[in-house]
Amino acid sequence: MSHQAAILAYVHPTERAEALPAREGFSAEAMGFLNHVRLMSMTCRCSARAEVSQACRMLSMDPQISRDALVEALVKSLAQIMGRTPRFFSPGVATLSEDEMWLVRLVTCESTGDRLSAEFLIRSRVARNMRASMAFLARSLGDAFQIS
Questions:
Q1: Rounded to two decimals, what is the model's pTM?
Q2: For the chain, which end, N or C, has fewer CB atoms within 10 Å of the first or last residue's CB respectively?
């Protein structure tokens, strides 16, 4: 099966949140979110990266922005936000990279309203000039995915 066919044959994670069993202390919703990010990172590998400020500006204009648009903006700008290319495994892989664990914890904190932990996570990996943008994206993702 070709790489493109594998992507097209994959069941969208929002349709099947149980795509991965709960791991590393994460809920099935969190693992569904992670699979969504992994799938988007695969489809965005060849596309242009987005400027972080441009992506946040675009997202802030539309309060009804879709989950896909939020995840795409995150994936396309995460390398700039983190100062390096993040490591995402393929959808369905049971192992989580450190970057994936960090991202799931961050979005879970935003989803549950734990702003102090979210701020700590952002400060631990994001350069000062990118923290506001990452906080905006994480808050938006937390609201959209409602991970507990």
A1: 0.76
A2: N
